């Protein structure tokens, strides 16, 4: 098992850390905890994804908007900060996210060579070619698929699987792959919270909206049933493994314990192993102090399973 991490993933806003509930330094906590574990190696991308790559993925309007502070702050769901320069936002928030995108790309390359990979960042499933929103600026899965197809590592019609187990519906991924029927999406999420887009929910092949407050027993039952409907193998699988399903999370509205969350990830891992799918797990959302603990538990479980 390879874990993808670099110190540059961490988002530290200094005195402004209070402006968002996201614990931007959790990646370091997780990496420190799993370093040295058996069957686990930590590797990082060589650098952030370039803006040239981001631009080639984005539509013409988004290219412009991604350089506008007001637009970026709105996508990050923080109040407008007149005294904070765009260079601060770029260095402290956007650059770490571009490192995260590069981690997803590198992890996918490794996965295609046969190693199960987990990128601690990434899983920016609300971003698309047309917009940035919901604390997601760059759609790392879309950018990764574009690069791998261009390099000939994936065919144009490659069968890609996205299993989205973050508490929020992955509207960005659904929009990016709206016309690409070879991409299968399973999405299990709180149906009563953002994003409420009917259009993108309809794109999901195995669509599992849950009620607010859903606990671990029902969640795992519904997930198991959804996974049982995936019986074909695929060329590459991504898992958006957000930990905002935890009961302690302030945004997800679900009611899973840390053990439930670990069981969830193991269930997905076992399914992907049973269909021999090259797999990349991604960090996704997760805004509580338990988030790092749950990620560490899952990584231990996956490391021991190999
Ligand atoms: Zn989420």
TrEMBL record:
<dbReference type="Pfam" id="PF00850">
    <property type="entry name" value="Hist_deacetyl"/>
</dbReference>
<dbReference type="GO" id="GO:0004407">
    <property type="term" value="F:histone deacetylase activity"/>
</dbReference>
<dbReference type="GO" id="GO:0016787">
    <property type="term" value="F:hydrolase activity"/>
</dbReference>
<dbReference type="GO" id="GO:0040029">
    <property type="term" value="P:epigenetic regulation of gene expression"/>
</dbReference>
<keyword id="KW-0378">Hydrolase</keyword>
<feature type="domain" description="Histone deacetylase">
    <location>
        <begin position="90"/>
        <end position="294"/>
    </location>
</feature>
<protein>
    <submittedName>
        <fullName>Histone deacetylase</fullName>
    </submittedName>
</protein>
<dbReference type="InterPro" id="IPR037138">
    <property type="entry name" value="His_deacetylse_dom_sf"/>
</dbReference>
<dbReference type="InterPro" id="IPR023801">
    <property type="entry name" value="His_deacetylse_dom"/>
</dbReference>
<dbReference type="InterPro" id="IPR023696">
    <property type="entry name" value="Ureohydrolase_dom_sf"/>
</dbReference>
<dbReference type="InterPro" id="IPR044150">
    <property type="entry name" value="HDAC_classIV"/>
</dbReference>
